[in-house]
Amino acid sequence: MTTMTDTSNAARFREFKMPDVGEGLTEAEILKWYVQPGDTVTDGQVVCEVETAKAAVELPIPFDGVVHELRFPEGTTVDVGQVIIAVDVAPGSDSGAEEPEAPAPAAEAAAPEAEAPKGRQPVLVGYGVSESSTKRRARKGAETAPPAAAPAAVQAELNGQGTAAVPEARPLAKPPVRKLAKDLGIDLATVTPTGAGGIITREDVHAAATPSEPVAPAAPAEPSVAPMAAEAEVPVQQGARETRIPVKGVRKAIAQAMVGSAFTAPHVTEFVTVDVTRTMKLVAELKEDKDMAGVRVNPLLLIAKALLVAIKRNPEVNAVWDEANQEIVQKHYVNLGIAAATPRGLIVPNIKDAHDQTLPQLAASLGELVATARDGKTSPAAMAGGTVTITNVGVFGVDTGTPILNPGESAILAVGAIKLQPWVHKGKVKPRQVTTLALSFDHRLIDGELGSKFLADIAAILEQPKRLITWA
């Protein structure tokens, strides 16, 4: 906590700390600032977007005022509880009041106002702060400070040393730019700065890395998809034989969870190939049904419903192994997880109490879940508490796979591509719609008999979808 020099100053400046945005997380990466020093903010206004180990989350400021200081630049991983922004909540008060003293690391991390962008682009297409939506106040003393003092002042601010100057031999650059130069093997002392106050920018480093030709621009993202944070941090150098991408945020959490799952729960995977021609016909009929108007009907919807009916017939599958208490915890509800590939990595949001939903309700929930995931707005709460998961590898044209259990769950169903294949039907070889299902399960609590019965029930329902009614 920053030390305040007097009571009036303490009342004037308020600090906003990095909150725990999801179930005991310890850190988050600042992806995007939507405000800059001098901007007016109001209670509830989103000031930044951060990425935790579970999802990207927007943070609203809990009070009104004028932004005094951003303590960390974009791309910085900040511990929960650290101050990330200071706000002047009484900008019209005595101008002589002392400002809060920022610790040296925070001052180095804060972006100097001299390099503040004229306009800020939103993270997602069609979302964010417009160029004219905020107002700036003039920085105190900006009009009277002599131009010659600017480089020294900026140099001191970057290194958190108040008005003391640092040796001129040290190039001026923000921490992310220094990291970029280190990754590309560029000596900052050889780089010609073009930023305000003699600061080296990312573009300067790129130019030094490839002086004869510009860095290739990144391919544009699809309209509804946010760019992956890790890709934004690691530009590709032309002619390079390899690219190193930092593992952090959602992707880091996925890697750790999958390793933990694979080496903690004894996995067993079983497969079954099934004729889903009747299910595909039912999908076509439901698309024309007025009761399903306004919702998306696809094979995944009926597969999800088949899985829910199969759980009702085999409730022991919907459980989890409690290692600490050496107990099997059977769940009497189904939070159905749907694995979704997003630019930030694979995430598994779930539909709460999916077992209680009608077919139209389940269709609406699936549509909302997928749209939210693709927009990068899935909340940590939406990914917590899952009981069983479906992963649809068939959308990539893959026949099947051996999926790894989502941590905290005991079964995951992989759905392969549905293809027209020769199949023996009523004693004759005919072209039929066929797919392969793969079920991985935790063998500590699901033995071969239970796992086989569960998978066979799902296959039987998809082969004869009228069982959605007779078995429900």
Structural class: alpha+beta
Pick out the low-confidence regions: 1-7, 104-168, 211-233
Number of helices: 12
Number of strands: 21
Q: Helicity, in percent?
A: 25-40%
- Overall shape: it is elongated
Q: Could you give the distance between the termini?
A: 58 Å
Mean pLDDT: 77
Spatial extent as radius of gyration: 28 Å
Largest sheet: 7 strands, mixed
Strand percentage: 15-25%
Task: Write a brief structural summary.
The chain is α+β, with helices and mostly antiparallel strands. Helices cover 25% and strands 22% of the residues. A hairpin with a 4-residue loop joins strand 4 and strand 5.
Q: Could you please describe the fold and organization of this structure?
A:
It contains twelve helices and 21 strands. With 472 residues, it is of the alpha+beta class. Strands 11, 14, 17, 18, 19, 20 and 21 form a seven-stranded mixed beta sheet that branches. Strands 1-8-6-3 form a four-stranded antiparallel beta sheet. Strand 9, helix 4 and strand 10 form a beta-alpha-beta unit.
